Amino acid sequence: MPTIRLPADARLDGLRDRARALQRAVRAGDAAALGRVAARHSAEVSPGAFPLSLARLVIAREHGFASWPRLKRHLDVLARHRRDLDPAARADPAEEFCRLACLAYDGDDAPERRARARRLLATRPDLPRGDIGAAAAASDPDAVRDLLAGDRSLARREAGPYALPPLLYLTYSRLDPEVREEPVLAVARLLLRAGADPNAGFLWQGLAPPFTALTGAFGEGESGPGRQPRHPHSSALARLLLSAGADPNDGQALYNRMFRPGDDHLELLFAYGLGEGDGGPWRARLGDALDTPAELVRGQLTWAIDHGFAGRVRLLAAHGADVRSPLPDGRTPVEAAARGGHTEIVTLLEAAGARGPRITGVDALVAAWLAGDRAAVAEAGSGLLARARAERPALVVEAAEAGRTAAVPLLAELGFDLDARLDAATAARLRLGVPGGTALHWAAWRGDLGLTRLLLELGADPGVRDARFGTTPLEWARRASQDASAELLAD
User: Fold this and answer.
1) pLDDT in tens, 426-466
2) Can you tell me whether residue 204 is helix, strand or coil?
3) Residues 462, 465, 471, 477, Cα dihedral to 10°
4) Cα–Cα distance measured from residue 260 to residue 480, given in angstroms and rounded to the nearest whole number
């Protein structure tokens, strides 16, 4: 029986009200309410004497919890660790400095905000001397050392604009892209020796998985490296945290770094046990709200296959990722790779023991086109080509999003619309949060100058607007702080 995901703003009072409403409905003989009870409770129920305790049990089980007390404990954990990271300016200069210097994963993460932090510190160089969060964000080991000498408990105290421990202000700080490695690691060591928790983190707006110290060090995310860069000493800082006991099964860190090629983060996490163990202290707190270590690795495999990251597939398979079982949408890994035209990945998966059904018809032709196989064009009659255009109208977007630049001219010749917008179903399959963009939108967002130029040369409309926000590719480039792409599109 599928469970219902708790909303991010779930509150115990609201769930109590729902339990009372269920109790009243059952006692009134409501058929739907009785069906809900039967689905979650096998014993026979007397509607007239249906107790509130049983209604609460049904509500808990609908959300995947074995009992009401377990649901209540889960909500307590959410309340304890939730942070909304309010972007409003702070009156206290030290808090305002931390707010400006650190990634908040809100709509205002941008280079200009970090520049404002640098200007503030230049006018108030004393800020780190009196505030442990500001000292950590500024990577100032002398200030941290002096503050801890007066009170070692500061290493674990939650304070500052986001009520976080200082280790997180260190790992989320992007104050100075040229900061030296030595002071950064010195601050981390001072805090850890004084008792800072290497698994410290928070639930962004109450959502799982948590944003941990490790998440901050690795950086990046949906808004791209221009707005949410990795820490300048990402690998060294992450290695120090992992050596101190940070759990490598960090779902948010993996998510934030999966959008672009490059696997140094995965290599480091695998070296410290990614995919193994019980999921660490955060899974102990949140249970099935977090993926298991094996599920985390499998999720990375699915993304890598769909987006043509052959090197990542090779790395994941070498570390035991399940390459045989069907993916969440029912495709086998080999089938998914074949349908995307990722012939190298098909070969990798088959060498690792994976198998999948042979693809035929439209799927086979589309795969050949995405692979840039011009010989396959001759095999497509007008009927099959028309079917392909009808079934995959946003194929140019798929090719662009997966980096299949060589396929784009061929698809244009075959009559696929260069200005087609990505539909919601395809966006969900590719795990892209924003449907409605065209190939040019996605090329601009990712800063892919070669693809942007190619699309413009082929006739893509630079003034086309996405279906969700009504914005142009130029606006997407500016939003992602892709200055070179913005300059090209503005020109």
Assistant:
1) 777 666 656 788 999 989 988 899 999 999 999 999 999 98
2) strand
3) -40
4) 14
